[in-house]
Amino acid sequence: MTELDLTDIADLRREYMKGGLRRNELTQEPLTLFEKWLKQACEAGLSDPTAMSVATVDENGQPYQRIVLLKHFDEKGLVFYTNLGSRKASHLEHNPHVSLLFPWYPLERQVCFLGKAEKLSPLEVVKYFHSRPKDSQIAAWASQQSSRISARGILESKFLELKQKFKNGEVPLPSFWGGFRVAFDSVEFWQGRENRLHDRFIYQKSIDGWDIERLAP
């Protein structure tokens, strides 16, 4: 195998040939089309088809991104869970505006949601928390997300200590663990096309429902 010369990354490109997205294929509201695309991503065997990049902004205007997993969606919004002491949760306390991006590259597709995040109710959080594998529940207790640690061994030792503690009983919901629902008002669907003439359609919420426009690539 020839070793890649990273000075040539500007020449790395390919054509997008998997098809297009036409106006007559759009649904009246975005969630129906999103559900169809998500199902196709699952059926195609993509790794982590529910993975989405969550973009937040701190109090200084600095944007941050990270990958989290979508856990539920309906007309009220898209749901994910996290440590409420995490950097993303801190950002959302100050600025609830958020962007969610689903990068389904093998299908040459992207979907971007824009909206505002709100905390989930305690009932929603506890119901989901106890549906998780027990080790995942324990890991939530072991990690003070986004805090600095001197070595991985500290984290692993804490996990083993808690695993022993909760060995014969239910893992309680940590007070610092919760979730967010992103109520969206804008959704963009992107489908790759030949010659970089990609298809882009944006849904924007209006009084009467959803306005749909094609965007230039």
TrEMBL record:
Catalyzed reaction equations: pyridoxamine 5'-phosphate + O2 + H2O = pyridoxal 5'-phosphate + H2O2 + NH4(+); pyridoxine 5'-phosphate + O2 = pyridoxal 5'-phosphate + H2O2
GO annotation, biological process: pyridoxine biosynthetic process
Gene3D superfamilies: Electron Transport, Fmn-binding Protein, Chain A
Assembly with partners or alone: Homodimer.
UniProt keyword Oxidoreductase present: yes
Protein name per the record: Pyridoxine/pyridoxamine 5'-phosphate oxidase
Domain Pyridoxine 5'-phosphate oxidase dimerisation C-terminal: 177-217
Source species: Proteus myxofaciens ATCC 19692
SUPFAM superfamilies linked to this entry: FMN-binding split barrel
Family (UniProt): Belongs to the pyridoxamine 5'-phosphate oxidase family.
Keywords, alphabetical: Flavoprotein, FMN, Oxidoreductase, Pyridoxine biosynthesis
Gene name, Swiss-Prot/TrEMBL: pdxH
Binding-site list for FMN: 66-71, 81-82, 87-88, 110, 145-146, 190, 200
Domain Pyridoxamine 5'-phosphate oxidase N-terminal: 38-164
Cofactor dependence: FMN
Cofactor stoichiometry and binding remark: Binds 1 FMN per subunit.
Physiological role: Catalyzes the oxidation of either pyridoxine 5'-phosphate (PNP) or pyridoxamine 5'-phosphate (PMP) into pyridoxal 5'-phosphate (PLP).
Binding site for substrate: R13, R14, E15, Y16, K71, Y128, R132, S136, R196, L197, H198
